[in-house]
Design a protein that fits this description.
Elements (H helix, E strand, L loop, with lengths): L2 E6 L8 H15 L3 E6 L7 H13 L2 E8 L6 H13 L7 E8 L5 H4 L2 H12 L2 E2 L3 E4 L20 H16 L6 E4 L10 H19 L11
Parallel strand pairs: 1-2, 1-3, 3-4, 4-5, 4-6, 6-7
Helix pairs in contact: 1-6
Length: 224
């Protein structure tokens, strides 16, 4: 029986878009008789015994699926740390499939495909993983994972994601290649006036509110 190891790289852990995506694929693969295991990255990097547990799980897995958000073109610390651990241990990863599923808050998946996917491909090549394709998801906040929602609870917004996750499962079952894929969860009408202008206004207002809470002067122009 093939084993699939999920690594949840979201700092939010179980209440995150990464978790919602992972839980759906986890259950789907389990129903297909795969052995499945999910670890939360942030729980695996603090103590030596947890690192050893992580490495043992990777060693036993046929597939390693990384679930992670992208924050302003940057990987979460716990994801980078686990990549470093895998690299430094110089494990025998021959024939193990590595497949990242990445989401970002921005609607455009290009935030992921143009910078992040090449990094993961380089990582896989250097440590010996076989590249298994990737899924880049724009507008991940539409899935409301941070509120603990599962994909079946967010209606049409999850439709594209569910379809691709099921394709990934089928590719693992049939041992066929899953292509690098990008999808957008934000409906097209959000890009049209007046919703586009309203969304931009609300986002700017939200960012300013958070900045003010942190003590920043949001309208400061020091260079003038």
């Amino acid at each position: 029986m093939s084993k699939v190891l999920f690594l949840n790289g979201s700092p939010r852990g179980k209440k995150s878009t990464s978790a919602a995506l992972g839980n759906y694929l986890f259950d789907f693969l389990k129903d297909m008789n795969f052995e499945t295991k999910m670890l939360i990255n942030r729980n695996q990097i603090g103590k030596e015994e947890k690192i050893e547990e992580l490495l043992k799980e990777i060693e036993e897995a046929s597939y390693v699926i990384l679930l992670t958000p992208l924050y302003d073109d940057c990987q979460p610390y716990n994801v980078l740390k686990i990549l470093e651990i895998i690299f430094e241990k110089q494990m025998n990863l021959e024939n193990k499939i590595f497949l990242p599923i990445i989401n970002c808050g921005f609607p455009e998946p290009e935030q992921i495909t143009e910078g992040t996917i090449p990094i993961y491909k380089q990582f896989a090549s250097q440590v010996g993983f076989k590249w298994g394709g990737s899924l880049s998801i724009g507008g991940g906040e539409m899935l409301q994972g941070r509120y603990g929602k599962q994909l079946h609870e967010v209606s049409q917004f999850a439709k594209n994601a569910i379809e691709e996750l099921e394709k990934i499962a089928e590719s693992l079952k049939n041992k066929t290649e899953y292509p690098d894929t990008e999808i957008i969860l934000v409906p097209g009408y959000f890009y049209k006036w007046p919703l586009k202008n309203l969304a931009t206004y609300m986002n700017n207002k939200g960012w300013k509110k958070v900045a003010e809470k942190k003590g920043e002067k949001v309208d400061a122009t020091p260079l003038l």
